[in-house]
């Protein structure tokens, strides 16, 4: 019955007997659809990958851009070229740098404690090796000066004591003179003044050397702390001086005068 109705429709439209039967037309239409569209075209992955053209007046796109549609949402994807390196995501506590080495990042507190434990260790920790000979040489020089001034001070103290006592057997002050010198030929009052002034002189120098030792010790600690704190400080080599002529007003007579305006960039 249905076939007869379809046949009558074809006859009424074309005015003649159709060349193909309705079943044959349906099969041909199905084959055409299969050839034109793949079987998975109407699935979600196929529709997500199918490009959709967008008019230029609605959304301008770059020549190398492709737009995809997925559930009525437009996604713009750009090609990743070889000239643009991929982004590297790292954890905050990742210790290695781009070259595969751990970057040098000294701790100021550790540098201070190492310098306090042994002068020069803070400079070694900060990798300022050229400062180590200065520190060692400073301590050795001040140590030698302190020891030498202290020995001289002790000798003059003992000689001054022997001059001031009444014991004739204590004559250490004669050690400062050649063996041919007689005690009776020496002026006792002059010896007392000389030994007293020399004693005070060497004591003062010894104390100054000790103060310098303490100061050098503190300077080593401060230097280690500053070096560690400024290990990553950006020191630019751009040092320039710009000079331009300018017209200025003299403060005395309020008259214009020529001058030079300069700016130092560092």
Structure characterization notes:
This protein has helices at 2-14, 22-36, 44-49, 108-117, 121-125, 132-164, 188-229, and strands spanning 65-70, 73-78, 240-249, 256-265. α4 runs antiparallel to α7 (188-229) and α6 (132-164) runs antiparallel to α7 (188-229). It has 266 residues and is of the alpha+beta class. The protein is built from seven helices and four strands. Strands 1-2 form a two-stranded antiparallel sheet. A two-stranded antiparallel sheet has the order 3-4.
- The average pLDDT is 74
> What is the overall shape?
elongated
Q: Structural class, from helix and strand content?
A: alpha+beta
The major pleated sheet works out as:
2 strands, antiparallel
The tally of strands reads 4
Total DSSP helices: 7
The stretches of 5 or more residues where confidence is low (pLDDT under 50) are 44-50, 67-81
Strand order in space, largest sheet: 1-2
Helix amount, in percent?
40-55%
Strand content: 5-15%
The rounded distance between the terminal residues' Cα atoms is 100 Å
Cα-atom radius of gyration: 50 Å
Order of helices and strands: HHHEEHHHHEE
Give a nutshell description of this structure.
With about 270 residues, the chain is α+β, with helices and mostly antiparallel strands.
Helices and strands, with pairings:
Layout: H1 2-14, H2 22-36, H3 44-49, E1 65-70, E2 73-78, H4 108-117, H5 121-125, H6 132-164, H7 188-229, E3 240-249, E4 256-265
Antiparallel strand pairs: 1-2, 3-4
Helix pairs in contact: 4-7, 6-7
């Amino acid at each position: 019955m249905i076939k007869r109705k379809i046949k009558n429709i074809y006859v009424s439209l074309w005015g003649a007997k159709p060349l193909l039967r309705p079943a044959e037309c349906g099969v041909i239409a199905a084959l055409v659809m299969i050839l034109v569209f793949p079987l998975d075209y109407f699935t979600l992955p196929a529709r997500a990958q199918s490009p959709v053209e967008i008019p230029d007046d609605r959304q301008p796109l770059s020549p190398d851009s492709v737009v995809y549609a997925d559930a009525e949402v437009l996604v713009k994807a750009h090609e990743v070229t070889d000239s643009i390196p991929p982004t590297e995501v790292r954890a905050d506590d990742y210790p290695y740098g781009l070259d595969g080495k751990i970057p040098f990042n000294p701790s100021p507190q550790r540098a201070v404690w190492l310098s306090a434990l042994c002068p020069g260790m803070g400079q070694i920790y900060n990798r300022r090796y050229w400062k180590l000979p200065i520190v060692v040489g400073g301590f050795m020089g001040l140590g030698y000066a302190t020891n030498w001034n202290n020995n001289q001070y002790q000798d003059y103290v003992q000689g001054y004591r022997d001059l001031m006592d009444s014991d004739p057997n204590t004559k250490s002050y004669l050690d400062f003179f050649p063996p041919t010198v007689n005690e009776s030929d020496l002026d006792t009052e002059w010896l007392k003044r000389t030994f007293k002034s020399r004693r005070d002189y060497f004591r003062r120098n010894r104390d100054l050397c000790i103060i310098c030792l303490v100061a050098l010790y503190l300077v080593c600690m401060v230097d280690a702390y500053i070096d560690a704190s400024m290990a990553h400080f950006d020191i630019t080599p751009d040092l320039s001086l710009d000079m331009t002529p300018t017209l200025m007003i003299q403060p005395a007579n309020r008259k214009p005068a020529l001058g030079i305006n300069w700016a130092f960039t560092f």
